[in-house]
Amino acid sequence: MKKLIIDMDDVLVDTSPKILKIFNALNNTSFDATFFQKTDFYTFTALPQFQTLHTKLSEAGFFRNLEPNEHSIEVFNKLALKYDIFVVSAAMEFPNSLEDKVYWLQKHLPDLSWKKMVFCGDKSIVKGDVMIDDHMKNLSGFEGEKLLMTAMHNHLLDVPYRVHSWLQVQEILL
Ligand SMILES: [Mg+2]
After folding, report:
1. Contacts of 21 by beta carbon, 8 Å cutoff, 6+ apart
2. Average pLDDT for residues 64-86, to the nearest whole number?
3. How many of the other CB atoms lie within 10 Å of CB of 137?
4. What percentage of the chain reaches a pLDDT higher than 70?
5. Which of 101, 135, 150, 171 shows a CA-CA span of 20 to 30 A to 89?
6. What does residue 66 show for φ and ψ, rounded to 5 degrees?
7. Contacts of 173 (CB under 8 A, 6+ apart)
8. Model pTM score
9. If you average pLDDT over residues 140-152, what whole number do you get?
């Protein structure tokens, strides 16, 4: 079986809406996701007039009750019949997220063994045949086939291997 590496935030999990909601609440703003189709999210939200989100993301519970990305669970379960899937999350950035992420995976993917859950720092050590991620910092050093999942913060990246949805992932990999 080919080894498939799948990310959590903004790939399996619909994380951006909560991040945007908290950003707006902290800063008394009302930006919606479409604004960031033409404006780089990280550059914009790092402007000095805005409060940083880092403290909120570091809180226990932030990653616990997020919704799955549309069709992610159904397509994951189909892919699991054909691929050896590892869920790989750079969770060490937020140590309090570890328990939340295990909880989330056990709730939404109850058949996924703990041996297939990989929480790490730098993903450049990860090897496999296919990687689905929303960050170029994770994909760029990967030696296999890459798929960049469209997310609020990556619209401006020009890459030939972008996918916009899990249904598109299904078309490509099944
Ligand atoms: Mg991610």
Report:
1. none
2. 98
3. 11
4. 100
5. 171
6. -80, 155
7. 4, 79, 82, 83, 130
8. 0.97
9. 98
Distance CA 95, CA 111 (A): 24
Compute the distance from residue 10 Cα to the ligand 1 centre, in Å: 5
Q: Taking Cα atoms as reference points, which of 2, 15, 8 lies closest to residue 119?
A: 8
| 122 assigned to active site | no
Of 9, 10, 100, 134, the catalytic one is 9
Start-to-end C-alpha separation, the chain:
13
At 72, the pLDDT band (50, 70, 90 cuts) reads very high
Question: How far, in Å, from the CA of 30 to the mean position of ligand 1?
Answer: 23
> Residue 83 in contact with residue 173, Cβ under 8 Å?
yes
pLDDT in tens, 1-10: 999 999 999 9
Q: Does the active-site annotation cover 129?
A: no
pLDDT tens, position by position, 110-138? 999 999 999 999 999 999 999 999 999 99
CB-based contact 11:133 (threshold 8 Å) = yes
